[in-house]
Every structure is written in structure tokens, then in C-alpha cells.
Amino acid sequence: MIRYILARVIQAIPVLLIASVAVFFVLRLVPGDPASALAGENASQERVDEIRKDLGLEGPVAVQYVHWLRQVATGDLGTSVLNGLAVRRLIGLAARPTIELALVAYPLALAIGIPLGAAAGARPRSRWDLAATAYTTLAIGVPGFLTAIVMLWVFAIELDWLPASGYVSLLDDPVQAALHLAMPAATLAVGLSAVLARYTRTAVSQALTQDYIRTARAKGLPERAVVMRHALRVALVPVVTVAALQVGQLLSGAVVVEQVFTRPGMGRLMVGAITGRDYPVVQGGLLVLVATFVLVNLAADILAGIADPRAVQR
Length: 314
What we know:
This protein has helices spanning about 1-30, 35-40, 45-55, 60-75, 85-120, 125-140, 145-160, 175-205, 210-220, 225-260, 265-275, 280-305, 310-314. It has a domain at about 95-270: MetI-like (MetI-like fold, Orthogonal Bundle), CATH 1.10.3720. Helix 5 packs across helix 8, helix 5 (about 85-120) crosses helix 11 (about 265-275) and helix 11 packs antiparallel against helix 12 (about 280-305). The longest helix has about 40 residues, at about 225-260. With about 325 residues, it is an all-alpha fold.
């Protein structure tokens, strides 16, 4: 098992390096000179050159990348051109609301999607299956921003049960924080849970056709025990991988949700930085998001190996 974990960690290192290359060079492909755009139309050439130096745009692109990577290795993500604050501090401030949103939305999606998919897979063509199919079709087909708008209209405007916008930290006021989190977290959880429900249904229905399931039934085990102890345990191995991949959808969905509900976070930080062409913030933010996605998938690989020892031997 230790060798398996080390192998997965070593494989993640080049992925992070490739991601850093993509983050750095893709921004350089955007048309236009960011230094000239930030300086303004009537700025002098000296001012443009000064901004270009602050952005690290002097010299060959490869040299710029090596210099930036050295800074990142020391924990220095640069300084925002727009407000002069350290990028690491900006990301730290923006990450807290997004982390709180993810810590509520992700478990909620798991709590809805996996049981719903397991019930549908255990009883094909039953009312559970039909209900799960209807839910997943609607949840996947409706865009996240439309779900957010409908929730705003129903729960904030018509019923006046929940606040329409704003942010309160869980540490400052848990009750108000929960009220402000309810609609954003539910919006994210709907789409994630639908994908998990579909994969879980397929995995459980396939597991129930295996020989060991027929053996368990022949021994007289109750159907609930057959599904929970045998079929679902094996079915959760691919579902864990899919759940990890949904972290990417969670991060991208947070951008939309934070805009609709006027909630601070990584999404709004990235949108503002892209609009203002704040290279250091965009680079640092993208790198943190990509690293988060890679590390979550690394954890999912390790959990899959623990759940299915056969994966360790392959």
C-alpha cells in the first residue's frame, strides 16, 4: 500500500508542473499588451515599461516562466497590479468563503446523489428508478445559473425566507452563515448530486449482476445486506473517482454561484482579475485551483486503492 501511495504522489508531481506551464503560457496567448491596457491610453512609455517589469513580462517567455516558478516554490505568488496587495493574501481572503461553500455543497451532493443512485440501481424500473431518472435529467439539463435564479425568486423574493445575497462567516455567526449558504450550496449540490446519482445507479446495477451477488443471495442473505455490504461497496470504487472529478465542476460552478448571489470568493476574485487583466492574481488563482483539483484526485486514487485492494496490485 505504501508503494502504491508513493507511486500516485510521484505521478502527481509532473501533472502539477504541466499545469503550471499551461497556466503561465495560456495567459501569454491572450491578444494585446496587458501593460499598455493597465497603464491607459495616455500613459507614457516609461509607465508602460514600469508596469511590464512589475508583471514580470521582460525577457524571453521561458525565462519569465522559470523566474515565476522559483517564486511559486517559495510561496510567493506575486503582487496584484490593481491594488498592490500580495496575491497570496488575496487568495487567502477569497478562499475562505469558497471553502465554506464547498464544505456544505459537496457533502450535500454526496448525501443526495449516492443514496438516490443506489436505491435506483437496486430496484430497476421501480418508482425509485423513475424518480431518480426524472431528477437527474432535470438537474443536469437545467443550467446552474438558471437554478440559482429560480431559487432567488422563490425563496428570497416570493417567500422571503432566505437572504438574496451577502456573506457571513460560519465562525462569526453560524445561524446567519447557514441562511446565506442555503441557496448557493443547494444550487451547487443539485448538479453534482445528479451526476453522482447516475454513476452510482449504473455501478450498483452492474454489481448486482456479478456471480458473488448470486452467491450471497443463495446463502439467504437479506436483500438489504446484499446491496449494502456487497454491491454498494464494490460500486463505490468508480463512484469515488467520479466524485473527485466533480470537484472541477464544484470549482467552476462556484464562479457562477458567487456572481449570482453576490457572494465573495475565489470565483469573484478570478472574474475581477481577468476583467482587470491582473496577471499575477489570475496566475496565482488558477494555479491554486488546479493544484486543489489534482490533490483531490490524488486522494481519490488512494481511497480507491484502500477500498479495492486489487487496484494496488495492478
